Amino acid sequence: MSELATDPFRTAFRGRFENVLRWQQLDALWDVLDVNADGQWYIYAVGEQPPTDPASATAVRQFLTEIAKLLRKEHAEDYCGVVFTDSMDNPAFVKIFDPNNLGVSCGYSDNPPLPGWILSKLTPVDLNATTPLPGNRRRWWQRLARR
After folding, report:
1. Do 80 and 86 touch, CB atoms closer than 8 A?
2. Displacement of CA 125 from its chain's centroid (Å)
3. Contact of 120 with 9, CB cutoff 8 Å
């Protein structure tokens, strides 16, 4: 078996996830993440180099604030549905899909789109995104990463 097939991050990435359907559920998940923003979280913008070190608690909280603004602004629906977590109560892995690149993420596909961002307690590995981040997302991410 190849090293990629047994990598803990990839295994978790392909694991079972709950869809955060309602905005109130997203707020509750953010609250859990905020309380547990303890310097053990990696923030991975898929399409960029994966981080090698966990983000600080301050950086996690800043990311949560900024991504919440982006999702509410650009996913102008009365439901969320673009965030998935391995656990609402004790998350260790969160996938956040870009509202402008959903493709068929809600349905079946042999080649579903990758999430835009991942919060993980496992060290990320490159998911080999076939397309780089769009310019507006790259600027958003770089602005956030400089803080």
Report:
1. no
2. 14
3. yes
How many domains does the structure of the chain reveal?
1
Given a contact cutoff of 8 angstroms between Cβ atoms, the answer to whether 22 and 80 are in contact is: yes
What is the spatial distance between Cα 33 and Cα 54, in angstroms, rounded to a whole number? 14
Per-residue pLDDT of 85-129, as tens digits, reads 999 999 999 999 988 765 544 445 555 678 999 999 999 999 886
The residue that leads in pLDDT, 42 or 109, is 42
Q: Are 36 and 54 in contact (CB under 8 A)?
A: no
Structure tokens belonging to residue 27: 């707020």
DSSP calls for 131-144? SPPPHHHHHHHHHH
SS3 145: helix
Helices (H), 19-98: 23-35, 57-74
What's the CA gap between 41 and 123, in Å, rounded? 9
Give bridge partners of residue 18 from the DSSP assignment.
Answer: 85
Instruction: Note down the domain range covering 112.
Output: 3-146
- Four-residue CA torsion sign, 100, 71, 58, 89: negative
